[in-house]
Structure prediction request, 238 residues.
Amino acid sequence: MAGFAAGGFDSCLSNYGSYEDYLDSKLTPVDLFYLKKRDFARKLVEHGQKGPVLSREEFEEKKAAADAAQAAEAAKRSLDYKRNPARTLASAGKEFGDSFLRALAAREEANRSGKMTSVIFIRDHNTLGQEVSGYIDYAHRLKTQDFEPFFSGKTRLMPGRSDLCYYNWKTQVSTSNSSPNFEVLYDNPDGILFKNKRDKKILNVDPLSGPGEDSTRTFLQSDLYVHVVIYDHNIRTV
Prediction:
């Protein structure tokens, strides 16, 4: 398959939560307008009608390799960080014109060290022009993903189906997952809550309520996204 060496992998495959997401990335809004049905459009892509494409088996194999390599890189960064925090931050030495990237850089050390766990809310449009939104566990992403491409402006941080919460306003696809730092609670009548697994305190993301004990909410104006909010939960040490 062009662009994929035998036994190799493409690191960008880690950005796709599923094979369907990978196929969707090959589609355009015009494709969906004329083909109407997404499943039919995906089948055309899968059968090579829009150029070379990985089979499901190839995708799963290469994505697993890419995920493993990315996790290994993140683990190496984590180990390097413990040895030399200032040198190994992904944001170190970079200048940011956007307030969102500056905010992430300001929080990177605290989230890597465990002094803080931040939840990032992002609402924007995916590559198909569909509005999506979701909540991202920043500390967990830092440990499982290389953030150098985000801080370098090579790619954008976007919510995915494996994050705390994800919703596609066009397809109505909705997912939620607890992370190593937060448990997702659904029994609140005013919306979801996140329970910190270390100190058991509740992070409330309802904009009409306070964020909770030891937590703060920061609204940001960003040129990169339609809507961005960062919730910081500070971990008290005895």
